[in-house]
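Before a colleague's protein record goes any further, I have to sign it off. What it holds is a sequence and that sequence's fold in C-alpha cell form. My question to you is simply how this chain folds and whether the C-alpha cells agree. Thanks in advance; the entry in question is below:
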Amino acid sequence: MACVSKDYNYSKNCQNEMYLAHEREKEIIPLLLEKDAWLPKHAGVSLCMVPCVYIEYGNESHDKWLNDLLTRVKKIDRV
C-alpha cells in the first residue's frame, strides 16, 4: 500500500520503493491522501500506478474506504 501525496511523488525513497514493487510485479494499492496526487502531470511514480485501482481517502465515509482497503488486502493475501 502506498499512501500517496504530492510530496510522496517527489520523494526519491518513495520513488525507489514504487519502482521496485513495480519491477517485482507486486500488487500496489494506492491510497490517495490528496486530490490529483498521482496524475501524470506530477513527476515520479505516476506511471507505475496507472494500472492500479486507487482508494481515495476522505471522499467517502471512513467505513467505506477502510472496507475497500481491507477487501483489497485480503485478496492479495489469498494469492
In short: The mean pLDDT is 77.
